[in-house]
Structure formats: structure tokens, C-alpha cells
Design a protein that fits this description.
Belongs to the WD repeat RBAP46/RBAP48/MSI1 family. Helices cover 0% and strands 46% of the residues. It is mostly beta strands. It has one domain: Methylamine Dehydrogenase, Chain H, CATH 2.130.10.10. The chain has a four-stranded antiparallel β-sheet, with no helix packed on it. It is globular.
Amino acid sequence: MILWDTRSNITSNIVHAHDAKVNSLSFNPNREFILATASADESIALWDIRFLKSKLIALKYNNIEFFQVQWSPHYESVLASRAADNWLFVWDMNNYVPSIAEADEYRTELSFIYYGNEFNISDFSWNDNELWTFCSVAKDNILRVWQNTQ
């Protein structure tokens, strides 16, 4: 991952972000220095772009590759991700507990798993106007709107 300072057109940081290609990134719209990356190395990483020497948090789930990540427009601690096997995940970093984060079977920060698409999900997006609402579109050309009651 390379960050440039556009004011001086100089490379400001070069970071080995993941062990495989980065598939997606998303800046947190509610916290200007926080960045999430999704990778083929089966992880999501959270970064503070002011201190890129190490990840803030690394998220994994059952050795699944993550293709897309996007922060919630409404909650600074919530992000969603699209993974292999047609799954959408919603994570809440307010529930992150480092001491048990390595145990995939009990992820405190994993709020919801959506598995409703029969084919590979092509894209998803949060709704900017409705809380806890996002949509997904799959290779079968079906658009699904998801709304959680939380």
C-alpha cells in the first residue's frame, strides 16, 4: 500500500499491508485517519494512516477471502465486508476484544452474517439515508436490500 502526500507529490508511506493482493479499501467517513483494507490473504486490516508501522486490528473468519470492505456512513465503529461463499459480514469494532479475537468460532466484533444470495455477490453498498440498511447485487442479477433491526 502506498500513500502520497498530494501537497508535495511525494510518496509519504509504503506499507506491506497484507501477504496477498489488496482487493478493496475504505476510508472511515466518521474518522478521517482510519482506513480498512480487505485482502486475498483472508483478512481485513484496520489502519491509522498517521501510524502505518502496524495494523490497528486484523480481522479473519474461517479462512475466507475478503473482496470488499466499506465503513458504515452512520456509525464510526461499524463496517461491512463481502467475502467468498456469497457472504456479507457486519463488524462492530466497539465489541472487539483482543484477548479472544484470534478464536474464529467466537468473534465478539462480528455482529451479523448475511447469506441470502445464491450466486457470487458482485457488489454491496450501505444506504446513506437509512440506518443499518444496505443492498447487495449478485451474478444472478438479483438485487437484495438488507435491513437490520438493531
